[in-house]
Structures are given as C-alpha cells and as structure tokens.
Specification:
By secondary structure, this protein is mainly α. The chain has helices spanning 4-27, 56-80, 84-89, 91-116, 123-141, 156-160, 162-189, 196-221, and strands at residues 33-35, 53-55. It folds into two domains: 1-121, no CATH class; 122-229, no CATH class. 69% of the residues lie in helices and 3% in strands. The protein has a two-stranded antiparallel ribbon. It is flat and about 70 Å long.
Amino acid sequence: MKNYRMLKWGLSASFIMAVCGLAVAWILPANMLLPTHWNANGNIDGYANIDGYANKWVALMLAPMTSAFVTIVLYGSAQIDPRQENIARSAPFIEMTMIALVVLFAIIQFVITSYGLGFHPPAKRLILGCVGAIFLVIGNYAAKTRPNFFFGIRTPWTLSSDEVWIKTHRYAGYAFALTGAAIVLIAAFDSNNRWALPAVISGSIWSALSPAFLSYLLWRQLPKDTPHP
C-alpha cells in the first residue's frame, strides 16, 4: 500500500503539535512543570516523575513524538505485510485508525498545553471521549478489512479462512461500535466518573475477546474440505 498521503498527514500533524509545544514551552517559566498523567478520577496523580509532573519540554514533546512514532509504525506495517492486495482493500480502516489516534494525541497535547497557559479543561472527559471515538471508528471500518497479518482480529481461524475473517469482523464492528458509543456517553454524562474505568475495561475485553472466540466457532462450522488460502 504505497499511500504516502497517510504518512505525510500523520507526520505533518505531529510536526505541527511539536512546533506548538515548543512555542508554548519557550514562553513558559524555566521551572514550569506540567501534568502528564491523570488517574481514573480525572485528578493528576504521581505516575510521572514527581507527583504527576514532568519537565515542560518533556511534557510538551511527549504527545507529538508518540504520534509520529505511531504513524510510522502503522505505515511501515502496511508496507511490509505480504498480502498487499488485502492491505489495499483494508486501507480505509488503516487510514481512519491512524487519523483517530493522531487526533487523540492532539487532544492530549491541547490539555497539557492548556495547563501550562493557566487553563484547566476537563482532561478525563476529553481523553475518554476520544477513546470512545476511536472505538467507533474501528467499529465502523472493521468490516471493510480483509485478511492480513497486522490489522484487525488476527487469530489462527480468521487467518485461515476469508469467510471466517469477514464474518468475525462484521461482528467485531458492532462490538467496537457499541463499546465506543457507551464510552462517549459516559464521558459526556458521567460527572462523578463512576462508570468510566469499568466501561473502558469491560468494553475492551468484550470487544477483543468475543470476536476471537466467535472466529473459532465459525471455523469449527466450516466444511472439513474447505480449502485454505
């Protein structure tokens, strides 16, 4: 899949994030410390360096560098997959997943930058809403993927049968979409943050494991003389 537009877009967005981060870091006080991690209740915790804070340069470069890394990994994976015809047919899923992830890192960059400028946006709701949106994107495009070795529900049974792959990803699309919709609603309306963590954990487990189990059941139902690719 020689889609350089995907690579250029992701790296360009990451570069813009980095430039904005450097510009903000330049005008902040030399000893300015910025939050880099929030706990399940949306409060800054002590996961990063000291009491949840890191050096301003590190904090403001974290999201852009991670965004660029993810872009390169996704693009590189698409290039080295031996089933290029199927990768090309899966391009909408790959591209939209990359865009959704880059947007997530942009939101994280916005939140960290806002703290440096004296604003305190609802970090947990913004990030949680983006996570839900990523699930929705995956759910919407999962059925459009075709068997490959890097993207989608890759089990021995989906990789051994195109029919099992297609049916599994059709179900996975609904699972991810429902999980994403639930997470977005919780981000919007759960002001007490009681349901956010359980929803993300349970939804992620259900969305990942139930399609894998279904793929095995579908494979068991195949005629024994079904040819394998």
